[in-house]
Amino acid sequence: MNILLTGSTGLIGTALSKNLKAQGHTLYPLRRNTTAGKHFWEPDEGHIHLDEETKIDAVIHLAGENIADTRWTQKKKERILNSRVHGTRLLAETLSQLKHKPEVLISGSAIGYYGDTGNNIVDEDSPRGEGFLSDIATQWEAATQAAEDAGIRTIHIRTGIVLSPDGGVLQKMLFPFTMGLGGVVGNGQQYMSWISIDDVVAIIETMLLNKEMYGPYNLVAPNPVTNYTFTKSLGKVLRRPTVSPLPAFMARIMFGEMADALLLSSSRVAATRLNKTGYKFADTDLTDALTRLLKKNN
After folding, report:
1. Which of 151, 61, 75 is nearest to 108 (CA)?
2. 290 lies in which domain range?
3. Would you call 132 helix, strand, or coil by DSSP?
4. By three-state DSSP, how is residue 129 classified?
């Protein structure tokens, strides 16, 4: 397949690119600030160039401003929102006008769509939640409408916490935990819906080929865990103590609004639609997944 990919240098994009190329697919990264390739864009300026001489079979859209690298000022929140909504709308509208339209568009989203779920289990049939992350995910998904209207099979991947030693949450946690400075955040009872990078890649690859898959899918492993369980599991795998808690008030001082949205809120999510496809997760147990991933990195 000829696959157009945004966000190719991100955590998921890097791993996905490697696997897709190994399987013989041809990748066309859609990048900024270059006219060297056949496809390039400046989404902030509303400009995109796709070479119509190259027939694109599928598009995987993963680009978006990092939500956890700095505190959420008003300008940062605007960049987070605009990078997802404006870029996605520009891409969808452009794809809808191509003479040779791609068969499928797989577009990023997140389980932040459901907001703080507390102890309640939610799935794809659950309503959207409240808060900034829910607003982002809702508008992000709506921005693909032009592609859907044009008959392009459109999938929204509502991704949970992606575990990889090469980036994301796990990589950021490794240094303090290795130094024996890990601990629960807040009361530790908030749920974390996680998934290994290997399952994310395998699921996206499945979506490319399974023409029955469309709409939203939660990309989360079958067994979400509390922050307490996650903390103890990571400490066990690293063989380090986990006795340095981060109280809620301190998290709010350090991270502001982002603390409540990313660290203290609970996200107990089920992958109901994915399970109905018969997909078999490679990683279902957190401790086993962490052991494998961290061993693989050494």
Report:
1. 61
2. 2-297
3. helix
4. coil
